[in-house]
Design brief:
CATH class of the largest domain: Alpha Beta
Order of helices and strands: EEEHHEHEHEHHHHHHEHEH
Number of strands: 8
CATH architecture of the largest domain: 3-Layer(aba) Sandwich
Number of helices: 12
Number of domains: 2
Distance between the termini: 29 Å
Structural class: alpha/beta
CATH topology of the largest domain: Rossmann fold
């Protein structure tokens, strides 16, 4: 991340941009940095100025306390200001929830696309989210960062043996380093339900995308997002999972953002 801007509360935000044209800001999900979404920049940069950034609390960005979802919306406001005063937003997973908050807040956003934002589609999912929130809060308050990462990995459905394998991997210290940011994503997701009232207030086009090889509830959640937004559209990508191929997703995003 070779550029910096400053959010309203003084937090330094690291970002990079590539290409020319209307601005598109890429927003990562939990346990991710700007580098995670940066592979999308290449196939989009021939038509857009594509911006990837480290959300607060990760990578080269700061993390001013206390945290609030509104502070992350202000981060996007600062980035939009830094790249021309207007932008479209793309968010993957819980990053999708953040861009929906930003669009509803009245920022100068042209269009919003989200990929598999993991909203609960039944009460069982809502209860699972509540239990995760309780466990995560306790683990982070007690400084048990590794346990916090484990809780998140279980929430994603990762098998226990893979979680224990991850603990022994060279990646684990880096995962523990950004574990406190899991609380940010948890706050952005709210109670886990599809935020229908918030979506109903968004006045710009919203594209909700899911992979047809992902669990059915992921597709149901994406469809619910599209249905709740006044200008919502739902798309599925053949053969894709939550680990979506940037080269498959990029043409769909390019068509939508150019509209």
């Amino acid at each position: 991340m070779d550029k910096k801007t400053t959010s309203r509360d003084g937090t330094s935000l690291a970002y990079e941009s590539t290409g020319d044209g209307p601005a598109v800001i890429l927003v990562s999900g939990a346990m991710s940095t700007g580098a995670t979404v940066a592979p999308l920049a290449g196939p989009l940069s021939d038509r857009f100025k594509v911006v990837s950034y480290d959300r607060r609390g990760r990578g080269a960005s700061g993390d001013t306390a206390p945290y609030a979802v509104d502070r992350e919306v202000e981060d996007l406001a600062a980035l939009i200001g830094a790249v021309g005063g207007e932008a479209s937003l793309y968010g993957i997973s819980s990053g999708g929830a953040l861009v929906l908050h930003a669009a509803a807040s009245g920022l100068p956003v042209r269009r919003v696309a989200v990929y598999e934002t993991p909203f609960a589609v039944n009460e069982g999912g809502v209860q699972e989210r509540a239990e995760y929130t309780r466990g995560l809060t306790e683990a982070l308050e007690q400084g048990r960062r590794g346990d916090a990462v484990e809780l998140f990995l279980r929430l994603t459905g990762l098998a226990e043996e893979m979680i224990q394998g991850a603990r022994q991997s060279p990646m684990w210290p880096g995962m523990e380093a950004i574990a406190p940011s899991l609380a940010h994503d948890d706050a952005v997701m709210g109670d886990g339900r599809v935020p229908r009232a918030l979506l109903a207030s968004i006045t710009v086009p919203v594209l909700a995308v899911a992979g047809d090889a992902s669990p059915a509830w992921m597709r149901e959640a994406a469809q619910a997002v599209a249905e709740a937004a006044p200008e919502g559209t739902y798309r599925t990508l053949e053969g894709q999972t939550h680990m979506v191929d940037p080269n498959v997703l990029a043409p769909v995003l390019a068509e939508f953002f150019a509209g």
